[in-house]
Amino acid sequence: MKRLLLTAFLMIGFASAPAGAIMLTFDPASPIDTSGGGPIDVAVGITGLESDGFDEIVAAFDIDVLYDSSLLDPTSVAFGDPLLGDMLDDLFFPGFFSLYSDDTSTAGVWNLAGLSFLSDADLAFQQGDSFVLAVLTFDVLNEGFAALDFGLDLALGKDVKGRNNDPILPVSEVPEPGTLLLMGAGMLLLGLRRRLGLAV
Amino acid sequence: MMPDRDALVGEDVVVWGVTDQTPGTYELDCGNGVTTGVVAIADRSYIPLVCNYGAPGTYTATLTTQALGESDTAAVSVFDGAALTPLELRGLQINMAIEDGLRNLWVTQTGRAAGFPTSVTTFWGPNFQYADTSMTVLAFENQGYGLTNDNVAPTGIYEKYIVRRGLNYVMSTLSPVNLGLTPQGDDPCVAVSDGPAPCVGLTTPADPGYSVGVAMLGFAGSGALARTNTEVAGVTAGMTFGEILQRLTNALAWGQQDAGTVHRGGWIYSLNGGGFDGSTVGWALLAFLDAAAAGATVPPWVATEFQFGFDNTLNTNGSFDYRADGNPAGNSNPGPQKVGIGLQGLFFTGEFAGARVTAVTDNINSWWNGPGGIGVSSWTCSVPLGPAGSSNENKGCTYSMFNNFKGLKLHGIQTLPNVGRAAGPGAIPANDWHEDYKDWLLANQNAPTTVGGGSWGPAMGFSCCGGSRPDMETAIAELMLSPVALVLPDPVQFGEIGLQHCLDGVPCTSRTPEVDGDPTADTNPVGTDHTVVARALSVGDNPIPGTTIDIDILSGPNAPQNFQGVSNAQGEVKFTYTSDGTVGTDEIQASIGNLNSNLLTKIWEDDAPEGLVCDVNTDNVVDRSDIQAIFGLVGTQASGPDDPADLNGDGLITINDARGCVLQCTNPRCAPNPI
Fold this sequence. Notes:
The complex is a heterodimer. Helix content of chain A is 18%, strand content 32%. Chain A is an alpha+beta fold. In chain A, the strands form three sheets. Chain A has a five-stranded mixed beta sheet with strand order 5-8-3-1-12. In chain A, strands 4, 6, 7, 10 and 11 form a five-stranded antiparallel beta sheet that branches. In chain A, a hairpin with a 5-residue loop joins strand 6 and strand 7 (109-116). Helix content of chain B is 29%, strand content 16%. In chain B, a hairpin with a 2-residue loop joins strand 16 and strand 17 (595-605). Chain B has 16 helices and 17 strands. By secondary structure, chain B is of the alpha+beta class. The chains are: A alpha+beta, B alpha+beta. Chain A binds chain B through residues 59-62, 90, 97, 99, 101, 111, 113, 115-119, 156-159, 161, 164-165, 167, and chain B through 624, 627-628, 631-632, 634-635, 652, 654-660, 662-663, 665, 668-670.
């Protein structure tokens, strides 16, 4: 299975993410042009888990996605990376080891929560530098440029948990070019190469 | 020798001592090689020498008399100011100011040289000596120089020659006064052997309407109500200090104005003198508050009666009339000098918050930097206006400052917007009025490094009337530099049980019960809150409000932390802090000035009680069913301190608890136990 994954990554191609801190990202980046109508998919990702000396994981998260409710209307969410799979679940025996929930009851706020039953070591084995946490689907209400942002509050426990259940800091949203999936796959490849001792 | 004292490297400091020998010779040694040489004794009641130390350390100053070869020593702790933090340096400078001020009061005893050492009394002031002396004694007592609560003879120089002899002087001036039911039918003869009415009270030689109250202060502050007068003759011979304080209290209660409507419940110069005098009642209020804190019984009807005239004196704009006029919009010669009395009266009548407390506080604030405040200023205060920041309305006016000090402290008010003082050093907040007063006092003490200096007399006026009274000005400055607005708590009790844990599930209003036989240790999971309570109590367990208490986490995972508060009507200051999540033991201690409490230990453990953490379905295993339940609760409040879903005990179920519980699962990947 690992060989298959590696093959898939090589087929996607390699792209290196810029060095920097761990960050949450949107793809496409904020603001989103809604003039083309909907529905619009937005990938919520994380990157930098292995940058600048980090060796972090995502074990759980509870984040608010803040959106312009005059332009966008949330319709559905698909947790996990559409290409790599659910990185909080066991990639080899999926469907048993992660929990997710979302809440759109407050206009302009889309709460996303995820939790893994896996150990830190298991998560570190399968997670690379970057991957997608969820893909959000919006209907378009009006034309315009819809800003997106993340709502995080350590005091209220709204953050991303890494090793030893410590919050991953700093966490901030940055615009991301439209190559998130490629970059994520590339960095994951590097991570796996290091862990498995493979030459690429 | 003098008490041990502090000094700064390179700055002059006065060391001094006394001897009972004369004639003869002495030699006073700074402890650094500088001495007076052997010289003839000129004034055995005050032998000073100006020293200057070139390096930090503890030096032993020694006074030796040659005739009998006797000597005594005092320690001088010398600090390098450049090596201290700003907060430490400020504390040291305040200590030095206190030490020099008390030395000045020693020097200014009336007839000091003639009466030393044989006289059993001492006093201050050319007029109203019984009042000045009692106030001065209180200044020493509130700086920690008290008597033991028995008849053991004191040995410290201030305890033996100031507090003991000063109280003796006040006792020697008291006389009996017959007390009966008041015109309102109230009985002033409480807590005395010859009560109920009629009974005998005690009164002062002149102007007892205020001076009885002032005379009470020294006894209330003594912490020695079981001590007996064995040294001076008269009506108090054989009485305990407690009985003397009670009979003075009863007389002052009896002397409360009864007749009329506007002035009912007040005091004026003479007992039952027919008026509500806004300036006189300030001393009565302080006396009753001090007496109650010390353990005397204040007849409960006093506050009820006081309320009548008080409401006729306190104005809507927060000012306080000279004479009650029944018109809250009127100006019966009020002024900023008396505004603080309004806060004291509100406290005395149990009004701790509300519009009137706000109005008086705002009024005090409005006059903080001089003329132009709310209402009118009908008085001057004989303030020499040379010193920077001085005014007849506030700083420099002893009467204003002391009334403000007492009123603001009793209500626990720490800052006023007009103070304009920057924050610091340390955790001192911006606009801290008491620190502003301390700044002024530090800047305006007269020549503290000289043998005759240390007073605040030249820079301060006392009140509207009576001219300069340097001894009272210095005594009140000392009182305002002390950590208490009323009297010092019992040092023995504070040192043994002054600080206690508030335990989970136990109301924090009584003494902490012992936990496993140890009342000083308490254990909680990391990440949770903990509260400790410091209590300022007198020997008889009476609460002492208005006491500034510091609570410090001295060591451990959450150190260092400092919290400062002022005790409430229950004498309590509470401090709550949150563990930073680190396992370990904190050491916590409270302090009132130089008085330290017992040490508490707070043990922070990683594990909550077995069987509680994460096992929400109480099946004795933490598995996916528990985690699913906790995940479903994310974003909700915990059900209580023992909610098994609230792993970190912060009262909120979060993703932090959910993932934390995954790490607590009994089996890998939170699998259930095999059936």
